[in-house]
Input
Amino acid sequence: MTPADARLARLIGPVLPGLERMREVMERQVLETSRAVGDMTDHVARFRGKQLRGALVLLAGEATGNTTDEHPAIAAIVELIHLATLVHDDVLDGAAVRRRVACVNQRWDNQTAVLLGDFLYARAFALSTDLSSRLASRVLAEATRRVCVGEIEQAARRYDFELSQQVYEQIAGAKTATLYAAACELGARYPGGREELGLELRQFGWEIGLAFQIVDDCLDVVGDERVVGKSVGNDVEDGKITLPVLYAYRAADEVQQAAMRDIYTRPELERRIVRLREVCDLTRGVEFALARARELVAQAQQRLAGLEDGPHRRALHALGEFVLERNW
Output
């Protein structure tokens, strides 16, 4: 276990029993008589990751005194949706490695990976229909819609070096922060009522999730694949302009800007991320982006001030710092 893994284990310790129940629910949901499907679900189980979104459901529920017997199932639904987005994202990005194992699209093919992602979505929403309240179905259906819109908007903005920071954050937030926000809202609000508190925790989740995506975008341009545990440079290969690149571009002179555009757009160019690192100073862009991530986490932590002090509130607060320090 790495130091980061050990720290996260301590942070989520207060909801460990709920997480164990969540994992049991997930395992039951992906059981299939089809050997082909079973091989694939066994494979993706190896890159479920830290399961932060499921932990947020449980921590938000405990921190607000709102936990029910159905919260582990809600956490499982959130994690299944997240797992589906990972499988689909790897197809969109042409990624090869995730959590140090081959992506589904590499182990099998794009068509099969898309179908597996659809299978996971179906299982998640089927489980949501068994809950006593429709709130989870409504919130997570809307969250999934926003994730898809964010991906479509990002695809439409490829190679757009005139992208504003505001639009970048809208797209990045839709892709990633949406599910964090939904997890926190449902934890604090399910099965109903407590709308004001739920919306405050929703904003907490949005800010933590956006900070997570910004850090992820930084790792994609300066990270070491051996440390990060997944493919890096995918955004550059796919023409996506992220915050660190956007800031580096604006700080560059005209010659460097032209070189950056050429690296993004020249057909059949190999190792684009390596070439990008050679022609511009990405350090300044990364520093700017990480400062924005720190600002978002600070805003999120302030939203916890009204909650009663205790291990669950403290864990939510500390998870913000954990997001900033991650290198995976």
Remarks:
- The chain has one domain: 3-325.
- The first strand starts at residue 97 and ends at 98.
